[in-house]
Amino acid sequence: MKKRETLTVNVPPMVAKAFREVVAQYGGKVGACVAGAMALFIRATPEERKQVLQDVYTAELEGKLEPFLQPPQSRGSGKKS
User: Fold this and answer.
1) Using CA atoms, how far apart are residues 50 and 57, in angstroms rounded to an integer?
2) CB–CB of 23/33 below 8 Å?
3) How far apart are CA 38 and CA 51, in angstroms?
4) Is 22:33 a contact under the CB 8 Å cutoff?
């Protein structure tokens, strides 16, 4: 197996809980899921990265992390009529 590197991060408890729940669907492979999430972020355009970070910070500051962390189908279409 290839060498691994340890990363220590602090995230809001709600984010950690939601992440663990999703990771459980993939055999609890936290490292693999974090690597996958990191790869998605790395592969995103600079504009997409900026928007994701802005959305997370805004949701946290406004106390709206829980709805933000719901899967897209649980949040509705997001389209306004």
Assistant:
1) 11
2) yes
3) 15
4) yes
pLDDT in tens, 44-61: 999 999 999 999 999 999
Q: Within its chain, how far is the Cα of 71 from the centroid?
A: 11
pLDDT tens sequence across 27-39 = 999 999 999 999 9
* From 19-23, 45-49, 73-77, the region with the lowest mean pLDDT: 73-77
Query: Which residue, among 61, 67, 62, 4, has the nearest Cα to 30 in the 3D structure?
Result: 4
Tokens of 73: 């189908």
Which residue from 4, 15, 28 is spatially nearest to 56, judged by alpha carbons? Answer: 15
CA triple 11-37-8, angle to 5 deg: 40
Residues 55, 78 contacting (CB under 8 angstroms):
no
Q: Residues 73, 77, 81, CA angle at the centre, nearest 5°?
A: 160
pTM > 0.90: yes or no: no
